[in-house]
Amino acid sequence: MSTVADHYETHLAPVYLWMSGGADAAFARGDGELAALLPPQAKGTTAVDLGAGFGMHAVPLGRRGWSVVALDTSAFLLRELQDRAAGLPVRAVHDDLLSFQRHVRSSIDLLLIMGDTLTHLPDRAAVLTLIARAAESLRPGGTFIASFRDYSTPLVGPGRFIPVKSDADRILTCFLEYGEDHVEVHDLLHERQGSVWQQKVSTYRKLRLAPAWVADALRGAGFSVRSEPGLSGMVRLVATRD
User: Fold this and answer.
1) How many separate helices (H) and strands (E) can be counted in the chain?
2) Are 56 and 49 within 8 A, CB to CB?
3) What is the pLDDT of residues 46-104, one digit of tens each?
4) pTM listed for this prediction
5) Residue 125 Cα distances to 98, 121, 132, angstroms
6) How far apart are CA 222 and CA 239, in angstroms?
7) In the chain, what are the domains?
8) Residue 230 and residue 227: Cα distance in Å, rounded?
9) Distances from the Cα of 48 to the Cα of 40, 222, 240, angstroms
10) Contact, 158 vs 183, CB < 8 A?
11) Closest CA to 91 of 82, 100, 83, 99
12) What is the C-alpha separation between 71 and 85, in angstroms, rounded?
């Protein structure tokens, strides 16, 4: 089984833009989500985007004038981000998600962990550590936004096979196996090479996090929290530091 970082770097990162429908479509979705969540901000407002990938949220934030630290464990995706964030106040950082504090020098206004990245953490203790560090780093009134998939209720039978995306030359499907605290995600990628189809398979773990548990952990750390539907069937928690 691969680590999350290895799974992305060797398996998903090369096709991640394709999975997202291309950069322009992804940036439009990210910008629309931010517009619905955040008021217009003054120059110099600061954000940290954890699991930033190729910049679905970091690039729109930079275009809006935010100063952004965009952190990810995938060097491949961060190179994509740097190309698309050229000239914007966006700094790409290759590091572990829990190490974001070493890359900020003062209180921040916004911390994002979107696109199911929260479930990439190894265990609930790591989630609690991240929440505690978010509370330390955000200014009073600052915002923490997390989106993630609710794996607390297992899918069963054929429902565990999920078609992710396909076209004439590429098919991505995932299959889920549930453990007590984690779900094992098997990503099956088929790509056409001339007249031959080649298969690549990689497996990694995601945490099974109940939204109510995450919301309670945020409240315990001093946040006011609201829960709402996110993009692509995810849950989104919007937390304000008291």
Assistant:
1) 7, 11
2) no
3) 999 999 999 999 999 999 999 999 999 999 999 999 999 999 999 999 999 999 999 99
4) 0.95
5) 11, 9, 11
6) 9
7) 4-151+209-241 (3.40.50.150), 157-206 (2.20.25.110)
8) 9
9) 17, 19, 15
10) no
11) 82
12) 13
Q: How far is CA 21 from CA 16, 18, 68, in A?
A: 9, 5, 24
Of the candidates 38, 40, 61, 65, the one whose C-alpha atom is nearest the C-alpha of residue 49 is: 61
Residues 6+ apart with CB under 8 A from 70: 49, 52, 55, 58, 78, 81, 85, 90, 91, 92, 93
Say how many residues make up the chain: 242
Query: 175: which 2 tokens?
Result: 């299959």
Quick one: which of 144, 18, 28, 164 has its CA closest to 77? Answer: 18
- Distance CA(31)–CA(148), nearest Å, equals 18
Using DSSP bridges, classify how beta strands 108-113 and 90-94 pair: parallel, antiparallel or unpaired: unpaired
* Sign of the dihedral through C-alpha 216, 217, 221, 223: negative
Cα four-point dihedral sign 203, 132, 235, 48 = negative
CB neighbour list of residue 121: distance below 8 Å, 6 or more residues apart: 97, 98, 127, 130, 207
- DSSP, collapsed to helix, strand or coil, labels residue 53 as coil
Amino acid at the residue 45: T
Tell me the per-residue pLDDT of 104-161, one tens digit each, with 9 for 90 and over: 988 999 999 999 999 999 999 999 999 999 999 999 999 999 999 999 999 999 999 9
